[in-house]
Every structure is written in structure tokens, then in C-alpha cells.
């Protein structure tokens, strides 16, 4: 029963992580693409003395969107700034204690910032501020800020749960080691697969050679 509960919890954990990954990757990819497209189009438009009046507002919205969705993505992939020199010098037990303390403090800070950002957004909504060009409600530009902070806090909580449920040290819910270590691991797995394929091909070649030696061609 306990094993089944662990498997179901691990399955939900993975599904939750994939849903976050799908959402963040799509938002970041579309945001960067739209931002680059708007800037390039506006440059060409200014060349012909026809500036697009709403580009500045849309680029501001996209920058805010990319920044605060990127906060959650950075935490989930362990791409945030860390004091690696001190952390890597510790033994694994101390590393696990430190990563839990760091993630706990970071999660509290993220949730507090999310609360403050939500209060600021609510105030802007109450005051009915609008953007000067498109006349859109200004609070819609701010809505992603509390969401991004809250999502980052959730990722820190997931990191704490991950470190409490497994014996290894995890820097994030999806990242165990450094970026270079991840690349080396991927290369090692790739070469291991290539070696297995070569061994299988050699075995097949030897089997075919044995069969041909047992049944020589008739003259």
C-alpha cells in the first residue's frame, strides 16, 4: 500500500512538473518571438517614417511577461544564482540541510512578494489606470507578476519535497547537479547507447559468420 502511494505521488509530481514545463516553455518562446518581431517591424516602420504607436506598450508587457515567467523557469531548472563555492565544499548531508533551508527561505520570500504584487495589482485595478496608447487596463500588465512569484514559490516547495523524499541532493525539482554535469551525463548516456548498439551489431556479425562457416556454399 505504501509503495502504491509513493508511485501515485511520484506520478502526480511528474505530471505537475510537465504541465509547468509545457506552460512556461510555450509562454517564454512565444513571448521572445513576439517581442523580437515587434521590435524588428517597428524599426522597419520608422525607416519609412511610420512608427507603430502601440509597440512600446506591447514590448513593455512582453518584457514583464518573459521576466516573471522566467523566474519560475529559472527556479525549476536551477538556473538561478547560487553560492556554489561554499555549497559544493560541504558533504552531502550538509548540502541537503542547506538546500532545504535555502529553499524554505526563498519560498517564503517568493510568496511574500507575490502577496505584495497582488496588492499592488489590486490597487491599480481599483484606481482604473489605463495605458496611454491602447487604453487597456494597466492591471492586466501587472497580473503576471504575482503569478510569476507564486509559481517560483511553488517550485521551491517542490524542491523541498523532492529532497525530503529521496536520499540524493537536488538543486531543483528537475535538476540534480550543475548544468555542466547534466551535459556530461547526457553525453555519457549517448555514448553508452552507442556502445550497446555496437556490441549488438558485433554479436549479429559473429552469429552470421558462424552460420556461414557451418553451411559453406556448394561448388
Automatic annotation (TrEMBL):
Domain of life: Bacteria
GO cellular component: plasma membrane
GO biological process: C4-dicarboxylate transport
GO molecular function, one term: transmembrane transporter activity
Pfam families noted in UniProt: DctQ
Record field: compositional bias (Basic and acidic residues): 200-213
Membrane topology field: Multi-pass membrane protein
PANTHER family (alphabetical): 2,3-DIKETO-L-GULONATE TRAP TRANSPORTER SMALL PERMEASE PROTEIN YIAM
The name this protein goes by in its record: TRAP-type C4-dicarboxylate transport system, small permease component
Organism: Anoxynatronum buryatiense
UniProt lineage: Bacteria, Bacillati, Bacillota, Clostridia, Eubacteriales
